[in-house]
Amino acid sequence: MTSNLTLLIVIGALVACGVYLILERAVSKMLLGMILFGNAANLLVIMVGGPSGRPPILGSAHPVVEGMADPLAQAMVLTAIVITMGIAAFVLALAYRSFALTTTDQVENDPEDTEVAGRRAGEDPER
Asked: Region (Disordered): which ranges (predicted)?
């Protein structure tokens, strides 16, 4: 099996951009990062599913062909698209609720998490 180097580079760039955006503090950037990461994973699954342009199922009249595409990869990607859309809708609802309450898109540090991080660093929590 041969793979398209250009498509692999595009998938790598999408994963890198997605991870960078997921690590941001703004909810809208996190959502865009999750969507980019999901699309990169879908492209990777489709790419390893078989050669493009071939039918997924040939039927019983034709012998099994070596270059036949894998229908399981296509079904998994369709399911992943639906799940990604559901997650995007949920995060959009959370972002809207957060913006309605705090009028900002930024996620603030939790005070308990800050205290635990201070204890790990060796700082005195009583200060």
From this structure: 107-127
Residue type, 35: I
Q: Which residue has the tokens 């309450």?
A: 101
User: pLDDT digit string (tens) for 71-98?
Assistant: 788 889 999 999 999 999 999 998 899 8
Cβ atoms 32, 21 nearer than 8 A: yes
* pTM attached to this predicted model: 0.73
CATH fold for the domain made of 5-55+69-120: Helix Hairpins (1.10.287)
Task: Look at residues 19, 12, 13, 16 and name the one whose alpha carbon lies nearest to residue 34.
Answer: 19
Helix (H) or strand (E) run with residue 61 in it: none
Calculate the CA dihedral of residues 28, 31, 36, 41 and round it to 10 degrees. 170
- For the chain, the domains span 5-55+69-120
* pLDDT tens track for 34-58: 999 999 999 999 888 776 666 666 6
